[in-house]
Amino acid sequence: MIAESRKLWLLLIFWLACNNVPGLAQVPQDRFDALAFGVKADGKTDDTPAIQKALDAAAKQGGAVRLPAGQYLVAGSLKIQPGVALVGSNQAPLYIEPLLGTVILAAGGRDKEDARALFEMGNSSTVQGLTVFYPDQMPSDIRPYAWTFHLQGGDNTVENVTLINSYNGIKIGPEPNVRHRIRSVSGCVLRRGIWLDNCTDIGRIENVQWHCHWWSSPKVGGNWDKVYKYMWQNCEGFVFARTDWEYVTNTFIFPVKIGYHFIATKNGTMNGQLCGIGADASNRCIVVDAIQPMGLLITNGQFVAFEGENPIEIVVNATCTGSVRLQTCDFWGPAVQNVVSHSQSFVSLSNCYFSSGRQKEKALVEADGGKIQIEGCSFATGEPSILLGKGLKHAIVTGNNGEKGARITNQIGQKAIIANNEPGDK
Fold it and tell me: What is the pLDDT along the chain (426 residues), one digit of tens a residue?
C-alpha cells in the first residue's frame, strides 16, 4: 500500500512539473525521450516511425531527442530537421566490440546507393553519440548501400559517432552547404568515407579515422583479411570537390585505394588546408585532379603506399591548374615513387622526408609539368632523388640531402635553378 501511494505521488509530481506548476522543478521542454514515442530498442522492431515521430515533435521548437543505450533497428531513413539533435549515450567513438551504448542497426538502402541516407540532415541539425552497424552486410559479399549521413544546408554537426561497416559514410552536398562540423568520427568505410561538394563557407573535418579494424572482429560479423582487401581495392577515404577554405585536421585512413582525392564537379573545386593527416596501406595516398588556383596546403602529413600496381604516395595530374604545397611531410614504405607531378601549375615540397627502398631506377620525386620547388628535403634511401622531366617549365631545387646525396637528373637545362644540395653519388 505504501509503495502504491509513493508511485502515485511521484506521478503527480511529474505531471505538475510537466504542466509548469509554480514552485516545482521544471522538466526541460527541449528534451524528448524517444522511448516515450513508442521506440522499442529491442533490435528487432523497426523503430524508424517512432524515432521520426520524436524528431518531428522536437522540430516544433527545436531540441534534443535522446536515444538511451540500446539497439534500435532502423529499416528506413531518419530526417533530422532544423534545430534538432539526435543524441545517443556514447561520449566518444567506441571500440569494435561489444556493441554497447546507443547502437543503430541500419537495414535500409541496400543495393541502392542513391536512396535516402540513414540520416538526412538539414540546417542546424546534429547527430551525436551513437554507433551505426549494418547487420546484413557481409565481408564475403560486400554490397552497395546508401550513405549513412547526408548533410545539406548550414551549420550541421556529426560528432562522437562510430561506423562499424558503412559502405558510404558521410556525404556533404552537392546541395548548397556551409560550416559543416564533422568531429571525432571513427570506423570502417568500404567505398567512400567523406564526400564533399558545394560548400561555400569554411567547413571543418576534425579527428576522423577510417580503418578496417572496426569491422575485423567475428563478433560484429567482420573479417580482417577480406575487409582489408576490399578497402585497398575500392575505398576512397576523403573526396573533395567544391569547398572554400576547408579545414581538415587529424585525419587518417588504413587501408585505401585513394586516401585523399581532389576532384572537380559542376560546382567547382577545393581550396583548403590539411594538417596532421595520414594514409597507409594505400595505392595512392593523395590524387589531385583539380584544385582552386590558390590551392591546397598540406602540413605534417604521413604517407605510405605499397598496395596494388605501381603504388605512389602523391600524384598531381595534368588536369590540375591550381597550387599544391606540402610542408614537413614524411613518405615511407615500399612505394615505387613518392611524388609524381604532371601539374600545369605550381607544386612546392618543403622540409619533407622521402624514402622507399623498393626499386633503384625511378626517382622518388618526378615532375614533368608546370613549375616545382623542392627545398630542404631529405632523401633517405638510395633511389635517384629528383627527376626534372621534359615538359617542366621551371624548377628551384635547393638545400636538399640524402643517403647518397641529392641525386638530381635535370632534363630542362637552364630552366632549373639547382644550388646548395649535397652532391649525389652517380
Answer: 444 544 444 344 444 444 544 433 344 556 899 999 999 999 999 999 999 999 999 999 999 999 999 999 999 999 999 999 999 999 999 998 889 999 999 999 999 999 999 999 999 999 999 999 999 999 999 999 999 999 999 999 999 999 999 999 999 999 999 999 999 999 999 999 999 999 999 999 999 999 999 999 999 999 999 999 999 999 999 999 999 999 999 999 999 999 999 999 999 999 999 999 999 999 999 999 999 999 999 999 999 999 999 999 999 999 999 999 999 999 998 999 999 999 999 999 999 999 998 888 899 999 999 999 999 999 999 999 999 999 999 999 999 999 999 999 999 999 999 999 999 875
Judge whether 294 and 322 are in contact, CB under 8 Å.
yes
- DSSP code of 293? T
Q: Do 140 and 287 lie in a common domain?
A: no
326 with 260, same domain: the answer is yes
In a domain, 27, yes or no: no
Eight-state DSSP code of residue 389: -
- The cell for 14 is 511529474
φ, ψ (nearest 5 deg) of residue 226 = -70, -40
Report yes or no: 316 and 289 within 8 Å, Cβ to Cβ. no
Side chain identity at 261, as an amino acid letter? Answer: H
Domain containing residue 422: CATH number: 2.160.20.10
Is 141 within 8 Å of 112 (Cβ atoms)? no
Which range marks the domain in which residue 402 is found? 235-426
Q: Are 80 and 213 within one domain?
A: yes
Cα distance between residue 30 and residue 58, in whole Å: 7
| Gap between the Cα atoms of 292 and 243, Å rounded | 9
Q: Which long-range contacts (CB under 8 A, 24 or more apart) does 52-60 make?
A: 52/78, 52/79, 55/79, 55/80, 55/81, 55/84, 55/86, 56/81, 57/32, 58/30, 58/32, 58/83, 58/84, 58/85, 59/83, 59/84
Q: HSE of 270 in the Cβ direction (CA atoms, 13 Å)?
A: 25
Establish if 364 belongs to a structural domain: yes
- Which three cell numbers, joined as nine digits, stand for 61? 521548437
Closest CA to 83 of 155, 174, 28: 155
Residue type for position 240 = F
Beta strands in 328-379 (DSSP E): 330-332, 337-341, 346-350, 353-354, 365-367, 371-375, 378-379
